[in-house]
Each structure stands twice: as structure tokens, then as C-alpha cells.
Amino acid sequence: MKTLTESDYILASQALGVEVAVVKAVAEVESRGSGFLESGRPKILFEGHKFSKFTQRKYDSAEPTISYRKWTREHYLGGEREYERFFIASALDHKQALRSTSWGKFQIMGFNFGLCGYSNVESFVHDMELSEGLQLLAFVKFIENSNLAKYLKKKQWAKFARGYNGKGYKKNNYDVKLKNAYEKYKR
Question: How far from 185 is each of 24, 78, 133, 160, CA to CA, in Å?
């Protein structure tokens, strides 16, 4: 089965030492529900600024909507259409496209595969394609290995948001969304 159960959330929360509502809040804010699209493929978001960096800006001129220096949401297509961008990047440099994409229910960037317990990005992506359970396990490992559990335990949403999504988290009110989602699940 691809979707998470209540017991999955309980086990993850116990592993991290946080409330179940905390794990559910992150899942909701990151993927707005399922870790998969209607097609059965995992939800993704391709990040052109990461692709540009990882390919030493090699494709910036030829593919300016796929490879660009600074983060922008301007080129996002969203949903199923995000795969269009990913496939273009993948044709240019498959490994760097995998690393430049966030995957699944918890939208973990491919370049974080090591923090999730994987030896390479390909095996990380393979598991993200299989189930939300494996996406959840990767999330737990990532939180443990990136030292972010302490912020979740204390519900320090801004500190967690900065560590999980980078310094641009304020533009998207990520910390506020986390707090609101947590309060909803806490009830």
C-alpha cells in the first residue's frame, strides 16, 4: 500500500521524540496530502537553481527555465507538469536532475540522499517512487541526521523551517503554515 497509516505516523513520531501532530503538520505543508500524483508518480518539485549549481551553470544560457542562478518560483509548472521540467533536465544530466528535485510526501531534495541513509541518489529516488512508508522513513532519517528534531520537539517552527527549507522560508510563510497545521492536528 502506498499511503501512510496512523500507526506509521505514531512510529515516526516515537522515533523522533515528537508528537504525531508534528509529523502530520510537516507532511501536510510539504505535499498538501498525498506523496503521489494521480498518475502514481511521486510528487516532485524541480529546482532549477540547484540544477544550475550542480552542473556548474553549463545549461543556464541554453535552458533558462530549467537552469538559472537564483531561486524563483516563476518557472514552476506544478503537479504532473513538473515532470516536464524534470525530464528536460534529466536529458541534459540525469544524476544532477535527480539531485535537484524534491521528492514525495516530505519533499526531500535528492541531494540529501546521504542524510536519508542512502548511498546514492538513484536508490533514494527508487524508494521515493515505491511508497509513502519509504518516504516517511527517509524523512525520519533526514530529521535525525540533520539535527532538526530538536526544533520539532520544541515547536520552534521558524528554526525548523529555516533548516528544512532554507533561509527563503519566510517568503512562503512556511513557519506559520507549520504552526497552523500542527494546531489543526493537535485538536
Answer: 7, 26, 20, 18
